Amino acid sequence: MKKDKKTEKSKVFYKLYVVNIVITIVFICLISLLCSTFSSRLILNNFIAFNEDMIAEKVNVLDDRVKHLDETVDLIIGDESTFKFLMTNEKDYEKPTAILKIIRRFRNICSSNSLVRGICLVDLQRQIVITENTKMTIEGNRYDRYQGQNSFVVTNDGEERKLEFVKRFEPIRGKKVVYMILTVDEEVFTSNLLVGKESEMLKSCLMTRQGDVLTADGLDECAPAVQTELQGLEKGTEKFETSGQKLVLYKNPSKVSDMSIAAYEDYTYLEGQTRELKQMIIISSIAMILAASGIIYLCSLQFYRPLKRLGSKARGMNGGSGAGKSMDEYSLIETAIDELQYEKEYAQPYAIRNAAARLVMEEFQQEWMDYLKETLHQPMKFSWYVLMVTECRDNACTGKISGAYQKLIDEEPQINGFFVDMTPYRCVGIFNTELDYEQFLEKAKETKNRLAEEAVSCICCVSQNFKNPENMSLIYTEVLCMLEKAFFKGDAAFVHGEQTQEGTQKDQDRKYGENKLIQYVVSGEAEEAFAQLRNMTKSLEDQAADIQYTRFQYFQICQNLLENVVELGAKIPKDYGEKELFQKIFETRTIQELDALAEEILTCCIGYFQKREKGYSANVEKAMEFIRVNYGKDLSIDDVAASVFLSSGYLSIIFKEETGYTVLEYITAIRMGKAKELVLQGPGLKVKEIAEQLGYNNVQSFIRYFKKYYGETPMAYRKNADGK
User: Fold this and answer.
1) pLDDT tens per residue across span 110-119
2) Contact 604/571 with Cβ under 8 angstroms?
3) 345-499: CATH topology
């Protein structure tokens, strides 16, 4: 039994090892084959190219020697006595004295030129032959073979072989033909021209156009077929096979004569030069395969060990059954994953409900938000959050409700989030959106109306939109309070944040109170500010709502105050950050502690603005005065800077340091202060007229700034003030 278990455990390992080693061997063999093939070709081509270059160099030497012979002929013809003899048929130039000059000239050239052994001038018209030794008359047809020649001729005069350089002239065109024949010293002429002396395997020769071989270096040993092939080869390199022998033939003709340098080399020898390289490649490949085998063995073992551990754990998850023991590691892991997947599908709804419950009912933990985002594939990337709670009397409807709102999330690109069944009768939705609050409410109502058409009746309570998800539990508490109040509205109720606290009027009252509080703080009116805060907190105490709801209202008052004074340049301690403030408020145990905390924050804000009003530098004071006088114009920072003869950049720095405002913020503050006065004057002034007086060319811009400053539009502010 132990033996079988060991065999099963190692089966996957050997599969891994064999597959990897086979792939490696195939890869190395392919690479070796390619390297061997291409390197062999490269070496052969390099050998052939080298031989071609060597033959080309010898041809250049040959051309130089031929040019030397041409120059010698030109030198002879250029001699005065020889030139006169050639250019006339007069008998005077055949006199012994004239001929003697020519002979002497020929001798001098022969004695001074190592290439030239003899000179012969043949005048066919006169039938005269002049050599370096004598003058004679042409007898028979001895010189007929030179007719038409203008290059090298190989002759055999008895037993003596001669190499003659022949040049044909017509000094008197159509009337006279002369041959200048130089007997060339063959040994001197051909010295160092045979490439075979520099390459043991390369056989070469000098060959005329007629196929005469002047001198050879092993070429005479080759078959006649090779010589014939070389004679027929015009120029270049070609492969040739004869009698089972592979050869490479070379031929490079002279550029200035009818001579060529021809050569051949045994191709088998060239291939043999690559054999050593192929052997090295084969040996290297074998060494790499052996090394790779060892490395792959160790790597396979390393990779197999965690797989083995996973297999053992999977076998344990299978309960150590016999079926589990008979499976390999992959099968065991697959079975375990299938079981986990089943458990996940079964347990995931519960996990989602648990995470959502903790998120809205406990202190905020980012891990629960991250879990829901990842599990439900929701990026939650927008700025605003909205919380929704629905309740119905039929537990069969909760699935339809959550499905309908989840469909809204899936189909609307500007909404992210999730909708979860918390209890058999209650669903909670957390929405993340970039829609305006009114737009979101409209979409939510449309979904509820569709549910009503399907005979699904439920109460829906929607919170105000909020930025910080850490306030989720507090928002949830507020929505639950809304849900209790919605009890009196019937099963079809749709309640949202603006309808809480017994309707819109109380919400507007709270906003008006907050605006008054901020005005007192900014103006440094401490007594009025504390009185306003007490009125607001007393109103909350009188309502005697849920304690968590009351804490939330206190949090909103303090948070709005801090946000507004920060926008005006106030420096608020870190202890009053949103998260810290939330924690401080919800740690209070009595309403008195809430009041004390609110007054502490108010004192901090008032202190900042009172300190700021103590005095400014002359330039800043002048700039502020310029703004107070000209706020009704279309002012820019450049206009203000020009009024005090400073750069806009420098003015911005010192203005911010001394006042806490930027220049534009101060302009807006002055305008908004004047705007409040004009708005409160009554209905005599229209909003458009007020905007024009304050330097706003665009009425909508004025309304936007006013709402940002006082929390509501000018008309709503006037209406609320009249109501007070």
Assistant:
1) 888 888 888 8
2) no
3) Alpha-Beta Plaits (3.30.70)
